[in-house]
Amino acid sequence: MTTYDERASLTDLTATVERVRSSVEGVIEGKPEVVRLSLTVLLAEGHLLIEDVPGVGKTMLAKALAKSIDCSVRRIQFTPDLLPSDITGVSIWDQQRREFEFKPGAIFSQIVIGDEINRASPKTQSALLESLEERQVTIDGTTYELPSPFMVVATQNPVEMEGTYPLPEAQRDRFMARVSIGYPSPEAELQMLDVHGGVSPLDDLQPVAHAHEIVKLIDAVRGVHVADSVRRYAVDLVSATRTHPDLRLGASPRATLHLVRAAKATAALSGRDYALPDDVQNLAVAVLAHRLLPTAQAQLNRRTAEQVVEEIIQRTSVPATPQQHGYGLGHGTQAYGQQQPRRL
To answer: Coil, helix or strand for 94?
Structure first.
């Protein structure tokens, strides 16, 4: 059961996230849902993949999020000649001390911006696998822990673009969510011309939160309650991707874990200490679609992974929303009631 002090802490820390959100939205106009998803991934201890065509603000979003938090930030420009050691680091022989000295790579930072990640070779991309999942790097048999909080914000162009390599399935599965920014509305684009026409708004962006505040907020998110029925709903959604006829690769158990963690972060952003089925449902496309591989026939029929996930959501029964007086802040862990189909 959540105590009063824990609830107050969650409320106070949510205000911190609100400051970060306002700061990022001052740079990325007209995309509040994209900014919210980015913060959700940060609080859920995940990594974010931003995929879209050139020029829509992918790198701008990553840099705005990084500059809004007072923590260490490193940027990696992925190019075809980038080496794995440029990311993870390398041991160099010290002539004076007559021993190897480890020189950390760019991954040793609290927020890492991987720009155009799919322009590097698959060998270089695989250098991120250990750090994305285990938050550590092993070099020459020695394991080095990465700082906390740790988040990789990677951008990539669609694989149809010239000079890109598709991300390996194992690496895509380690990104908690994928988001596409999309083109701005005409009004937002006009505002962008006013704001970005002279100097970059990033130049005036100041940190509005400290890294230790984000760590505290992540701890608060871990304490968000997820009822058994909500966990079952997440499992049902993920399991359905493994048997769908239009998919040759479904989502992994790691996807289920990421979906529940993201739902807990969404609940915290809404000021709740419990997750709802709507939290899982609203995140399903962003968390699951990039992990799925459509069959050849589905690709011929122009069926996308996002469309398949939406269809699965429509077909999967949703736990009934609890009565406000029966579950919520300070009301324990009462389970949800009867299953009901999603309302269209």
So the answer is: strand
